[in-house]
């Protein structure tokens, strides 16, 4: 059985990832600075801003394990505006540099980490170059949080250049939602501007977890980034109508389904075999 450490396994996305990996035969360890609500797998209290702790947790821990095969790095302050900008920068870039560096020291060549939809240019005060957005245009971070996600993607590219056998998969998650969050979705319809900032997209935590698992199981090398969103929007209004009203003049690709997400997951579907199975429309 392959062992994977999930950083941030106590968090919103991490909980779903831990469950998904356990369900698919992985031996999972949760590394977090806070304990999980429910202990589904071994938990190790680690502050990833401490490099010594991070190296220790990715190599061997007495009475727990003596090797780690893969890392799913999700731990971060998960949005702009929760703490001052330099605190976001300090926690997130330091943690990620420590995790990526410790993985190299430990000889772990299978790394998946949480990037973010924000690098696509949220909140789109500057309109996107085209719709649906995808991975084909350079990052456009507009906040310190997003700047760190952008820098992490650059960091991964260079680390993989140093070590061609390393695989680093960056998943640009949309806004993570659990089933309990879906009750408020119908209220979004009243004002298209409420969710314009992320193109009316979201990701069901269970499908986000599937993407993490498929990233870990993908037999690739080098750095690849993927947009990971649910297949549909949060709205009842057709996506083409929303695009035309809120982003006039922005080219919209052909064949857009009625409620199809304006964040394209075509690359993840093609390369990782990502097949999202959930929509909020089945829960309200
Ligand atoms: N929530 C979203 O909408 C969203 C969208 C896109 C990307 N992401 C990214 O997905 C990942 C998971 O987000 P989430 O929504 O589950 O967030 P969350 O806050 O629910 O979970 C993050 C976890 O990371 C842990 N953590 C943070 N800093 C740490 C450190 N220094 N050492 C150890 N543990 C630390 C926290 O204790 C927490 O349990 C993050 O990287 C986030 O940036 C989230």
Account of the 3D structure:
44% of the residues are buried. It contains 7 helices and 9 strands. Strands 3-2-1-4-5-6-9 form a 7-stranded parallel β-sheet, sandwiched between helices. It has 284 residues and is α/β, with parallel strands linked by helices. The termini are far apart. The longest helix is centred in the middle third of the chain and has 21 residues, at 85-105. Bound molecules: nicotinamide-adenine-dinucleotide. Nicotinamide-adenine-dinucleotide (NAD) binds next to helix 1, helix 3 and strand 5.
Helices and strands, with pairings:
Layout: E1 3-7, H1 12-23, E2 27-32, E3 43-45, H2 51-59, E4 70-73, H3 85-105, E5 110-116, H4 144-162, E6 167-173, E7 176-177, E8 203-204, H5 205-217, E9 222-228, H6 239-246, H7 266-272
Parallel strand pairs: 1-2, 1-4, 2-3, 4-5, 5-6, 6-9, 7-8
Bound molecules: nicotinamide-adenine-dinucleotide.
Short overview:
The chain has 284 residues and is an alpha/beta fold.
> Termini distance?
38 Å
Beta-strand portion reads 15-25%
Shape: globular
Largest sheet: 7 strands, parallel
* Helical content (DSSP H or I, runs of 4+): 25-40%
- Major sheet: arrangement of strands: 3-2-1-4-5-6-9
Ligand list:
nicotinamide-adenine-dinucleotide
N-to-C order of helices and strands: EHEEHEHEHEEEHEHH
Instruction: Kindly name the structural category.
Output: alpha/beta
Low-confidence stretches: none
| Radius of gyration, CA atoms, in whole angstroms | 18 Å
Number of helices: 7
Number of strands: 9
Mean pLDDT: 98
Primary descriptors:
single chain; 284 residues; alpha/beta; two-stranded parallel sheet; binds nicotinamide-adenine-dinucleotide
